[in-house]
Amino acid sequence: MTDNNNRHLTLGVCDYPEHVPQQDWQKHAEAQKALGLSYVRLAEFAWSKIEPTQGKYDWLWLDQAIEVYSSQGLKLVLGTPTATPPAWLIEKYPEVLPVDENGQVKKFGSRRHYDHASEIYRQLCKDFVEKMAKRYANHPAVVGWQVDNELGHEGTTVSYGGASEQRFPNWLKDKYHTLEKLNDAWGNAFWSQNYSDWSQIKAPNLTAVRQANPSHSLDYQRFCSDMIDEFQQLQIDLLREICPSHFITHNFVIFSAESDLYKLAKNLDFVAWDSYPIGMLEFFATWESEETKTQYARTGHPDLVSLNHDIYRGLKNGKGFWVMEQQCGHANWAQYNPLPASGALGLWTAQAWAHGADSVVYFRFRASHMAQEIMHSGLLHQSGKADRGYAEVEAFEPEKFATQKTKNRVAIVHSYDSLWSYNHQPHNQNLSYWHQFALFYNVARSLGIDVDIVHPLDIKNSHYEVVICPALTLINPVEAEVILQESDNKSFIFGPRTDFRDQYAKAAIDGQFTLLSDLVNAKPINFDSLRPTLKQKVVSCSASEEYEAELWCESYETENANVRFKYSGGPLDGQAAVVESNNAVTIGALSKSLTRSLISEVCLSKGIDCDLLPEGVRKTTRGDSTLWVNFNDEQIEWKGKVIGGVNFLLVEN
Question: Which of 138, 371, 545, 623 falls 20 to 30 Å from 102 in CA-CA distance?
Fold first, then answer.
């Protein structure tokens, strides 16, 4: 459930009554109601305010705040404040602190300073959450819970010592049963890394030379992700028991890469995420020019924002999600934090709806006058006067945006195992999983194609007609079997490094495409990691098409597949760059223009419309309506559509 009985987009805000004088609470609530907001998120960082010393609770201020908001008819989402263990807890139980990759114990003074595997911390959280849930279980204004806050964010998934390092060997025992199986799975014969006792296995940091064994690193990442899953599930179970009528969600983050979110989302009613489009530009890292970042400096890039929306919609098989924190002014945490363009907040809100959001909650209502987020803006200035975003929320008409579902025909496959394995050994400092994934996503969206982002197993018995696998570098036998079965009635597009590693992160002894050999019908010859200034020409075998690849090229030999493109010049000269077999096209060259041509060709063969859109313009269909967004400063006129600069156009189909 999403508590969206109105069947149209709803709006909300994050507020912090504990940060401002109590006499301002009523003014805040009245203004929020006047803005047309439905929800207020409260208390997700308030542990020390509620329990200033162990066992001594002060609920009165929160009781009073809840009454103020509920008196205005606002619904409340309460956060369990376990992301911020208070100072007394750390002083009494210092063993709950996490350890960084340099072996240093992290200190109190910020947030997320705990090890998810710590049984001591888990019990303390259970005790607190139980008391909080019982206190507000029957309050009519409280409708839902956000568990913790941004789990695993900012490098906090992995602790390289303490409880995590202690529990890791037992997790491995449950998985491999014997050291012989573990040593074989990890390839520990290399560099004499074999273990003779489980107690010898530690966290994969501070290795003496070069990087840790990638199989060891992958399993530690999986383990730490499982610890987060267990930690979250303890709270979910409590809340289900005590507050059965309330929804339970969690607010994930931009390009979350530290935990397997398919697992974490499984037992939530719906997922939420925190959208900061301008700061998100830095996730382009090295693969986009400073010119592009400048072009979208005040709006964010349309495809980076929507890619995250589509990921979070896909975690629950297309179920509506929430944006739990929507940037409404300048943020404070990115390398650069310019003010958003006029109109950006309305644009982001509409775009979130188009990609499946049922509610958009703005962060925050009033800018903080203290501590780490002084430079982070809200709908109000620190003074309480309206900031730039206030008027845009006031003008937005959420009732025009019906929360219908959409059945898309194209899927893009996303895998955390592949993400972790790719990034452990990128073989090119300018490459990453997200770089390659975003390239394929950008191509599809630039062609006006609506996509779902899904787990490999979610394509089984699905309605999808085209399945794009941009970077499925690690694949297990179960996933491979699903792909092979579905290839009878679906067209597949594979990107570079597909089926390169087995489930333990080792390369198959007989080479790439071991599990997908019957579909791809090709074997690798070689791969080429290119410097940024080194380009590779790719030419068509049957026409005059010519493209340029960069950063990565891999070549294939085949007897039964059709070679579509070859390399021209360089060490891979004359070797296959793109092969087609059965219902699969495999692309070995990293090239946006080549990928666009091939995705367009495959989709058109299925009767899926493709039309290259103007730069910065995107269209998305949800239910009976199509939303056109324009991230450019200037008005765009295209095929009868007129879309204002930094604006949107909602069209009924």
Answer: 371
* Per-residue confidence (pLDDT) for residue 511, from 0 to 100: 84
Q: Which tokens sit at 442?
A: 């950008």
CB-based contacts of 510, cutoff 8 Å, min separation 6: none
Most confident of 273-282, 328-337, 391-400: 391-400
Q: Which of 613, 607, 620, 606 is nearest to 649 (CA)?
A: 620
User: What proportion of the chain, given as a percentage, has pLDDT over 90?
Assistant: 92
Closest CA to 236 of 222, 224, 249: 249
Model pTM?
0.97
State the amino acid at position 536 in one-letter form. Answer: Q
> 529 by DSSP, 3-state: which?
strand
Helix or strand (DSSP H, E) at 562: strand 562-568
Helices (H), 177-213: 179-186
Instruction: For 72-124, give the DSSP string.
Output: TT-EEEEEP-TTS--HHHHHH-GGGS-B-TTSPBP-SSSS--S-TT-HHHHHH
Residues constituting the chain? 653
Amino acid at 135: R
Q: Which of 44, 51, 150, 392 is catalytic?
A: 150
The answer to whether residue 288 is catalytic is no
DSSP 8-state class, residue 6: T
Name the catalytic one among 44, 165, 325, 465: 325
**pLDDT tens digits for range 379-388:** 999 999 999 9
First-to-last alpha carbon distance for the chain, in angstroms, is 27
Q: Is 495:436 a contact under the CB 8 Å cutoff?
A: yes
Q: Nearest to residue 444, comparing CAs of 474, 419, 409, 407?
A: 409
252: buried, middle or exposed (CB in 10 Å: 19+, 13-18, 0-12)? buried
To the query of whether residue 557 is one of the catalytic residues in this protein, the response is: no
pLDDT for 4 equals 52
Amino acid at 539: V
| Nearest Cα to Cα of residue 2 among 73, 70, 77, 82 | 77
If one counts every other C-beta atom within 10 angstroms of the C-beta of residue 559, the result is 7
pLDDT (mean) for 417-440: 96
Which pair of structure tokens corresponds to residue 257? 């890469």
- Per DSSP, the three-state class of 580 is strand
State the Cα–Cα distance between residues 160 and 227, nearest whole angstrom.
13
Task: Pick the closest to residue 80 from 231, 270, 280, 292 (CA basis).
Answer: 231
Cα 221 to Cα 257: distance, rounded to the nearest angstrom: 10
* Strands (DSSP E) found in 135-220: 142-146
Beta strand 39-42 with 576-581 is unpaired
* Burial (CB count within 10 angstroms: exposed 0-12, middle 13-18, buried 19+), residue 361: buried
Q: Is the pLDDT of residue 6 over 70?
A: no
Hunting for tokens 């924190």 — which residue is that? 325
- Tens-place pLDDT, residues 222-243: 999 999 999 999 999 999 999 9
The per-residue b/e assignment along 211-233, b for 16 or more CB within 10 angstroms, e otherwise, is ebbbbbbbbbbbbbbbbbbebbe
**In contact, 148 and 132? CB cutoff 8 Å:** no
Per the DSSP assignment, residues forming a β-bridge with 61 are none
The torsion of the CA quartet 44, 352, 155, 149, rounded to 10 degrees, works out to 10
Question: Measuring CA to CA, how many Å separate 641 from each of 19, 449, 630, 634, 651?
Answer: 46, 18, 11, 14, 10
